[in-house]
Amino acid sequence: TGGRIAAWNSSLARLTGIAPDSIEGEPLWDGFGRLLPRGEEGRLEAVEETIIDAVSTGETGWVEHVLSGRMVAAENVRLTVDVRGSALPVDKGYILGLAFFPRAEKTDSGRDGNAALEVLRQLNRRLEVERERERERIARELHDELEHTLTALKMDVARICERFSLEPEAQNGLMRVIGYTDEAIAAVRRISMELRPSILDDLGLSAAIEWQAEEFTQRTGIDVRVNMSPPDLEVTPAYAIEVFRILQEALTNVVRHAEATTVWVTLRATEEHIELIVKDNGQGIDREAANRRSSQGLVGIRERARHLNGMARIKGAPAEGTTVYVRLPLDAAEGRRNHEND
Description:
Layout: H1 10-16, H2 20-23, H3 28-33, H4 43-57, H5 64-67, E1 69-72, E2 78-90, E3 93-102, H6 113-163, H7 168-195, H8 198-203, H9 205-220, E4 223-229, H10 237-258, E5 262-269, E6 273-280, H11 287-290, H12 296-307, E7 311-317, E8 321-329, H13 337-340
Parallel strand pairs: 4-5
Antiparallel strand pairs: 1-2, 2-3, 5-6, 6-8, 7-8
Helix pairs in contact: 6-7, 9-10, 10-12
């Protein structure tokens, strides 16, 4: 996990604007940190962990997904680069070689590949925000209007049954109406909770995760075991909904692909990060599938993590299950309130 930068060739010096004599000999991860845009330092951990995995498994070819991203180049130009890593075993470790491949040129014109990608990401983010608002509006209307109307209907039918002497057939028919109404009320509550769990707004992220685990087990039969530290973590509503949606995506992938019987959900916090870990005992995802860009669920998890300046890793092995690991920075801007009250 350590090491220093041994060589920095002239091409990389021109690309980054960093002269070899100013970076050679610097600790490896400190040097890489100089290439990341402000606010994206958390990506460095993903790079480090991916390289360590590659070295430990001998898979040192393309690991494009995790090692791709924006970097600050010469003259403050931002590039998207792909990185290829290879490792040469030596007596006391490895000599690691990294090659940087820029995807696009300057982005100040707003028309190149990088700018287009960023515009698409921003557009997707705005659409997701609007979708979340629409989910909240529909859930509120279902609860405030349709559920109340159905409840009033049930009460009226019940009063008719109590006040009037009816033929047995009519009485039985009205009782069936009450039963159907109960089913409709339950369906409205379920749909409303799926759209926007009221428990998330009323009781917070920890309670919402517990509810989601119970609901998931009832619906799928897959056992979900939850561990949260601290058990009463409090964050802002906007932050909470992102973490909650990441969990939902991860659980959806378990149902679709894992063939698992048990899922372990861990939510833990330090002074600087929130970590969400969703691990199953299913068939295990392979590296190619984990990095496949056509997988909308995994892409959604990574994009949500990226939006919060965090990182997401998806790892698996045959017959050993899959682990979704998400680390998100938790700073004053996101408002972790429980420590403020200590």
